[in-house]
């Protein structure tokens, strides 16, 4: 039986984590697939023992990025027109006028948004983007590669990258089936859909309904529910260290129980160090009540700032920093990529900490995979680094509306509220939170969680053999 040659279009670290560091390739090879990473990242996938073709020195058309920016905001305006819900304005980014080039692009984008904010306008923007991308050397290069390699399908590992448009257009124009993976639970309301493919893979029935709602041009038979490979690591028991080995490896006190503080980036949570200090003060008070607790601090992988340093120094007897294992491939933040070891590290943190606390993060689902609860901060700091920032705006985002119930998380509603909520966890009085969080997880990600890679390959097989036509 001839093998299917599957091109995985790889554009970022999320794609690496989901498809190179999971069981995905092994599952594909079991099913007689010849998998090739069509790689536009700086990471050498061949170092993992996988086949790759690098996409190097290829650029999008000079106007495409501006058209993409306009398309995103027009999409959000259409969502507002359709729903009457102004929350979609929260997903818009500010325009830059720092340089003449940036100012010109911003003014052009704003003009396009003003004149094309309609369903018909969206169609025109897609038409313009595709027209200009087909004029690039990038598109010509991709066509030549595809004509030479003759893959059975091109699988795009993320729907949001403008760099993926030319390769996918080249494949479609050659009659090669294309499929895109919607990589995150919050992406569809944010209007991050940049690509148009023949098929789409989503996490859940809930996400399928979102895709049909936000993009009515997509038909139901183009969407397959698979789940995501990103959580599979939590079900690989052979990757877990014993408590003793993990504590020894990271200089943790074996007599303490630890709470994980999972940091956000500076845009998402500009006051993150103050929330970390509030947690440290609560732990200090609890330890005076004869508890023996500590904090494992895991920073956002792309946050290399010094903004936490003062808090870490002040509470060095309580806080132990365990940094993510990500690797920079250049000075740009978007070339800081995850490693396979980091997935194992994070799984062990979730296994050996009592809970995680943060601001609205998907780490809730990582920890619930280990039967551990999550606490979300839900109050503003008295003195804010950014007075215009509001934590309550965060929890109004559309993806939080999928929450099974308010009890899916432990809400931390003020500094004085933290002590009792953590004490309840330590005393095993949080079962209702875990049960609700698990139901939320089941809603937003297809279960069994550890079978996502298998389901994706089953979907690819249906696409390549034409059984979905």
Automatic annotation (TrEMBL):
Alphabetical list of SUPFAM superfamilies matching this protein: UDP-Glycosyltransferase/glycogen phosphorylase
Name of this chain's protein: UDP-glycosyltransferase
Natural source organism: Flavobacterium cheonhonense
